[in-house]
Specification:
This protein is α/β, with parallel strands linked by helices. The protein has a single domain, classed as TIM Barrel. It has eleven helices and ten strands. The strands form two sheets. It has an eight-stranded parallel barrel with strand order 1-2-3-6-7-8-9-10, surrounded by four helices. It has a two-stranded antiparallel ribbon with strand order 4-5. β9, α8 and β10 form a beta-alpha-beta unit. α6 packs parallel to α7 and α8 packs parallel to α10. The longest helix is centred in the middle third of the chain and has 17 residues. It is globular. The termini are far apart. The structure holds 1,6-di-O-phosphono-beta-D-fructofuranose. The site of 1,6-di-O-phosphono-beta-D-fructofuranose (FBP) has 13 residues, from α1, β10 and α9. Pfam families: DeoC. GO terms for molecular function: fructose-bisphosphate aldolase activity. Belongs to the DeoC/FbaB aldolase family. Its EC number is 4.1.2.13.
Amino acid sequence: MLALDDSAIARDGKILILAYDHGLEHGPTDFEGLEERMDPQTVFDVATHDAVTSIAVQKGIAEGYYPSYEDDVALVAKLNGTSNLWMGEPDSAVNCSVEYAADLGADAIGFTLYGGSNHEIEMAEEFRDAHEAAREYDLPSVMWSYPRGQGLKNDTSAGTIAYAARQALELGADVAKVKYPGSRDAMEHAVRAAGGPNGTKVIMSGGSKVSDEAFLESVKSVIDAGGAGLAVGRNIWQRENPTELLDALEQVIFEEASVDAALD
Ligand code: FBP
């Protein structure tokens, strides 16, 4: 496990990844209502906020836009991804090599694993190759650990999310990005399953847009449970003014403020 506390993608051991791979994963539908976010530059601008410790994008977006921002924001290069047009069993094509990601200036690699999918074996083998190549470059790996597939579609039960966190630890990921299991207790279980304080850092995946208060409450419960933070997309850049929520998140994640204090 790499010590991430002083790494480029963490601040005081805490993590806020601004995720922006949705154009591939969900398609342009995620930009409806705020079409300016179709332009990656608008989201890279958001990523320069102090609360954001890195931005996660696919290769094409990194190639086109990261060169202008490399002094201001760390890069998590997402190495695999699938479009919503794919109708088969959950799977994710490897779109970028670790070597190429390093050339692009990546500070970490991002990789999706769909535990429980009929393609889990191949995906785990692809992750092995990516993880071991990333170690050669001292790049941490962030696993989007999303159990899904036959009988498991978007299962966020405590047991499933703890298993997702454990899978990330066992396979060598430095950070496990998991769906929010619904409560602080369930998140504590996931953090323990990931090995505890010296294990894989567990972060929450943002999900679809909710109110400021509901979102901050879930982030607060992740931090209180010993989680390291979050990776968030739509709850930030689908907002007209992402700065306000990022200001509040900065207080909750890095200053241990209450939700009420952060909203004041
Ligand atoms: P959100 O905060 O918008 O949920 O983004 C997190 C994320 O993991 C993205 O990186 C990814 O594009 C998307 O969610 C995948 O969501 P889904 O569960 O629909 O596959």
